[in-house]
Specification:
The protein is mainly beta. It has a single domain, classed as Sortase, Chain: A. Helix content is 10%, strand content 35%. The radius of gyration is 16 Å and the shape is globular. InterPro entries: Sortase (IPR005754), Sortase_dom-sf (IPR023365), Sortase_F (IPR042001).
Length: 206
């Protein structure tokens, strides 16, 4: 069963993700604080079929686009993210790209699908420059390569210190399909060149 498969995989992942949701370096690489706005959104795509909540789609489908209307995000070309040698979540290589943690469920499967992007990078506003502005009730739509769209509704928006990141809450098993949007936030540490916190949006399939 998908629930049991993810529970087994999640247990192994939790042993590796020992620091923070998007790692010590996610959203960094810029000496500037978070930007106040992101680039304007492209036109939203036409309606597509809803994503099945219990079907195993991993073998034939991956997330390819993300729309978050409340913060003017429309991004395509999502990349696969893995783990760094230290066991933290890897990050995209530029400000304009978002990534899917490829060890997490495909959006629409049972468990928490994880998407991460920079808040800014080399003084360029990142995809998640305004993630901290999301509110409970805001929606996010993930388009998959099989043509289906998984629509999620935020039920929690939090900022966590990287030194006390709740790995199990973010990556742990869930009863149904969920989504996590992760970036950096809080104060920028001029010494370490990293942000001190992570912003995480928790959402459920609707």
């Amino acid at each position: 069963m998908r629930e049991r498969a993810w529970a087994t995989r999640a247990a192994a992942i939790l042993l590796l993700l020992v620091v923070a949701g998007c790692g010590q370096n996610a959203g960094t690489g810029s000496s500037a604080p978070p930007a106040d706005s992101a680039a304007g959104a492209a036109p939203r795509p036409a309606a597509r079929s809803a994503a099945p909540a219990t079907t195993n789609v991993r073998a034939r489908s991956t997330p390819v686009a993300l729309d978050v209307p409340a913060i003017d995000v429309h991004t395509t070309g999502l990349v696969d993210l893995g783990l760094t040698p230290s066991g933290a979540l890897d990050v995209p290589q530029d400000a304009a790209t978002a990534g899917w943690f490829a060890l997490s469920p495909v959006p629409g499967e049972v468990g928490p699908a994880v998407l991460a992007a920079h808040v800014d990078y080399k003084r360029v506003p990142g995809v998640f420059a305004r993630l901290r502005e999301m509110k409970v009730g805001d929606t996010a739509e993930v388009t998959r390569s099989d043509g289906a769209t998984a629509r999620f509704t935020a039920y929690r928006v939090e900022r966590f210190s990287k030194s006390a990141f709740p790995t199990a809450e973010v990556y742990g098993n869930t009863d149904g399909p969920e989504l996590r949007l992760v970036t950096c936030g809080g104060e920028f540490d001029e010494v370490s060149r990293h942000y001190r916190d992570n912003v995480v949006v928790f959402a459920r399939l609707t």
